[in-house]
């Protein structure tokens, strides 16, 4: 819901684990999910950080949120549905 209401998070490979973890703390409930599902012990910051990214990537895979090529997580991008007989570009299919 945080992402749906406009929340966004930039994750970069060139920052410290501490900085990435602080970013994950801004997403309500993310660290709680990691702890409640026992994906990472509370005291293991690197594993908790990796587990947070795993949870976010699972949400991306299920199209609940989106991730840009630059590592920004945000609101899910709604795909336009095609009507029967419509090609990938919105035109009609020819036989």
Task: Please describe what this structure looks like.
The chain is α+β, with helices and mostly antiparallel strands and 95 residues long. It has one domain. It contains 3 helices and 3 strands. It has helices at 17-25, 30-36, 45-61, and strands at 9-10, 65-67, 72-75. It has a 3-stranded antiparallel sheet with strand order 1-3-2. Helix 1 (17-25) packs across helix 3 (45-61) and helix 2 (30-36) crosses helix 3. The termini are far apart. The model has no long low-confidence stretch (mean pLDDT 86).
Number of domains: 1
The major β-sheet equals:
3 strands, antiparallel
Low-confidence stretches at least 5 residues in length (pLDDT < 50)?
A: none
> What is the overall shape?
elongated
The SS-based structural class is alpha+beta
Mean pLDDT: 86
| First-residue to last-residue Cα separation | 44 Å
Present the secondary structure layout.
Blueprint: E1 9-10, H1 17-25, H2 30-36, H3 45-61, E2 65-67, E3 72-75
Antiparallel strand pairs: 1-3, 2-3
Concise summary:
This protein has 95 residues and is of the alpha+beta class. It is built from three helices and three strands; from the N terminus they run E-H-H-H-E-E.
Keywords:
single chain; 95 residues; alpha+beta; 3-stranded antiparallel sheet; 3 helices; 3 strands; elongated
